[in-house]
Amino acid sequence: MMNKRAVVLYLTLISGLLLIVAGWYTASFLTFGAGTESAGETAAVNFTTATAGVTAQPESFDGARAYIDVQTQVDMGPRTPGSEGHAQVREWMREELESAGWTVEFHESERLGHPIYNLIAKRSSEQPQIIFAAHYDTRFAADNDPDESKRTQPVPGANDGASGVAVLLELARTLPESTIPVWLVFFDTEDNGRIEGWDWILGSRAFVEEISIQPQAVVIVDMIGDADLNLYYEKNSDKTIRAEIWETAARLGYGNVFIQTEKHSMLDDHTPFLEKGIPAVDIIDFDYPYWHTTADTPDKVSPESLQAVGDTLWHWAASRTGE
Ligand SMILES: [Zn+2]
Fold first, then answer.
1. Domain 59-319, what architecture?
2. Cβ atoms < 10 Å from Cβ of 8
């Protein structure tokens, strides 16, 4: 039994503790900047007014919003070259980028008799220091499908196609204006190698051959949405930049996703850049059981995986300075 005085004392102590916890919670929330719905300019203003030493940030990368972009793309149907979905996704990307304050240009070309439409998003006329890129096309044939009767069907491309595009679009909405000049490039016709009359990475080859650039770094994101995401060092990637990115991830608590061990050696959209002596990194999880199957659908992708990659690239880009 407690007497009245003891009860009062006890209650006071508890309310005091509650106040401290609530205060600490609010403070941490303010410090790390909860995501607000306003994009672009508001975020930039917040960033520039943030004082040194305070970790206040502009709008942060939102994996949940990126996940919706994965679903939106898959809902358009296959984005195979020349298809309705292919034209539709391009127009949608242009609208999303423009409403986030980016200027969009199409780089049109042709390879092996196929038209190529790469999309380039910029925020200034300055030469790009960083290029983030992903392919937006999907594959004509799910030739890895365990069900032989489905191998001529197109790949839905939730992870292989849509996930990279989604991360780029969310970066477009949230990267601080103060970031060194960035281009976001959406490559066409990456994914139809080993199909009669086609080859891999046609869009990025055309881009590198026809557009003169000298960025510090090119970062490709491809198949980075797998709910069971394991990102190993890709063997051909630039070692300095890949270490920087994986270190950034570790610092942010994504060390379980970004694993600092080499695994696969890829031919991907980073290859043409490397061949030209431009430092490039391929961020890819090539241990995806649904690769080039009809089961590459949004339920295999998670907002958390998109968040890990997007948040890492956001912080890495924001920390980079001009040369
Ligand atoms: Zn593919």
1. 3-Layer(aba) Sandwich (3.40)
2. 11
